[in-house]
Input
Amino acid sequence: MIGVKCPKCALMQMSRPTCKSCGTALNGPAPHPTPTQAFTTPPPVSSPPPPAGPIYMTQEAPPYMTQEAPPYMAQGGPPSMVDDAPPHLAQGGTLYSELDGGQIHWLTFHGTGGSLFGIQIVNMFLTILTLGIYYFWGKTRVRSYLLSQTEFAGDRFAYHGTGKELLIGFLKAMVLFVPIIALYYAPQFVEVTEVVKIVTILFVYGMMAVLIPLAMVGARRYRMSRTSWRGIRFSFRGGGMDFVKLFAKCSFLNMITGGLYYPYYETRKHAFMVSHSYFGNQKFHFDGHGRDLFGSYMLAMLLALPTLGLYWFWFQAKKHRYFWDNTTIDYARFRSAVTGGALLRLWMGNILLLVVTLGLAWPWVVVRNAQFTARYLTLEGSVDLTAIQQQAQVASPTGEGLASFLDLDSGFDFG
Amino acid sequence: MTTQWEGHYLDGRTAARQRVAIRLMRSGLEIITEKGATAWWPYPGIRQTQGSYAGEEVRLERGAEIPEVLLVSDAAFLTALHRIAPELATRFHNPTRRWMRAKLTILAAIAVIGITTVLYFWGIPAMAGLVASRVPVSWEEQLGQSVIEQLAPPSAQCTDPVRIQPIKEIVTTLTNTLPNSPYTFRVMVVDNPAMNAFAAPGGYIVVFRGLLERTQTAEELAGVLAHELQHVVKRHATRMLIQHASTGLLFAALTGGGGDPAAIGLEGARTLGILRYSRRHEEAADAEGVQMLVAAGIDPKGMITFFETLAEEGKGMPEFLKYVSTHPSTADRITRLQSLAAQVEGNPVKLLPDYDWEDVHQICQATGTQLRP
Output
């Protein structure tokens, strides 16, 4: 759990002595020293000031090499001279504190298939050895590796999820899911009337219609809350039931229009996912509309047969570009330059690799996909990073567990 | 040795990143901002979350849920840390010992190959045999019944009561060699031109008209029936179900968190693996079938003759197909059967000597006609 809930106004916030909204005292000690206390000015008497000028390098051991700790630590901890202002303001510098408006910021993926293959082998070994329990830790290691190897504007992402969380999420999802499955198969084993059968089946389908969108949202909420860049967590704050309603409404419209609603459906789902996403306290915005994709979708339908379905890649590329090009944060806009041809080549290569190696090449496929995303995606414009405050949100792993049960993908990739 | 390093500090409150100097000491790190403010991080409170791969920045975190972060781009920082505080630094990755990780990974790979091989060739078949032998016959019968409903519904069965009689008689002759069998054996002929026969769990044997018409003697059909009866007795269908589920689990473990892309390729490997199990079962049914024929006093040459008919039909099938087939290649089966038949001694008597076998081929022409009064 991240953050604390104010007992009076129920605001979810970072651990702090008092509620930032109403001032009520919050229970529990702060989980870590607040950043203003993290730094102390150097003690003037007992410790010499740090050497001036450039950071020196010496082959000889400096005097404090034999020291256990800085001298002031021996005198009962660091002196209590505390800066009131956050350190970056106190020092007057705004180094690396803004993504410059004149620049294009790139994603770079540094991972290699070989390293990922090594992780995979160890995961296989430990999963077999623990009769499957390690699976969740293995999954976490893979995610952590992939995010750690992704760099944006000079800094790497970090993943903070744990295997234990995934295991708990899986178990909770099982508690929810197993009775539904049991109910679905029960009429085959127990003598019941037709009416009871129909009611049971309708109930099960109803539950699924709720659980599938909840799982999609839950997985996104979990994964974003466990992802950070420059120490600031991402978060997803869309309401689960809001998405259930949207999902039901769009599915219904898609059904009665015989699939013509599909581009609207996709765009509305995407809009919900993006516009409830945050980086710290900074919101992502999405300004796309399904009608802009309708023409391309109709063309894709018309060309599906003559191109043996291959034109679908061009529609996917168009959708991908449209979705990213309409995503903004602060004064910056994402840009994607993916083309249908590039997407087709990526897919053909991946399928060939997997089939020929009987799946052994999957780490290289994952790396190819990540490099592909990084190659075509940029952020243009400026983001004031000093204005972005940490605003981590609580997120339970249950939705993630459900999603893994239902084999859903939340489509979360770097916000 | 360098004890002072350059790095960046993230306070966990804003996305701004500040440059700091870091001093390595024996029990912790001293962090100095450009303005001269210092912070003290004792080693036991620090965890390393990045920087164990070449080219990756070293990332140190301190604090609970939302940590403060220290980033050092030079991996030599870790080497220096291990020199200065060898005991406390064991919690940090040591780049000079990266070869150890490579070695352990290779060991894990060898272990995975070893375990998988043992499980696949020995563990899973043995376990399936053990579990299958404990499955109640009534469960198998239920399963068999649903298979029959799908593949040989009553409307497709040839029920000529006179011509089914010799076939039932052969089955009885064969099953008399199994005095303690818990199964009730039921044989049925289906009006289908395919040259096929199969056994469903629980004692059901289904012969297709196409196959029956190509048998020249009662002995030839007896060979087919003996083979199918062995599938029932050895519970091959039940074993296949268990093997299918277990290989599913094994391959799920092998994806090790990889997810869908890995599953696509592995599904191919799994299918190949299951086909091999199937071929082993066919070989077992052939071998045990010959034994059964001999025990029942039937000449096994009939079985071989029939396989030769099969081989004739399947001519022109490429050799490599034997690796992607549920059955071993017919030529291989004939060779094995001939050597098996040569090993056993028996005094075969002519099966159904007074019966005109050609007549049994007509069994389906009477379909739909009721019992004659």
Remarks:
- Chain B has a mean pLDDT of 84.
- The radius of gyration of chain B is 35 Å.
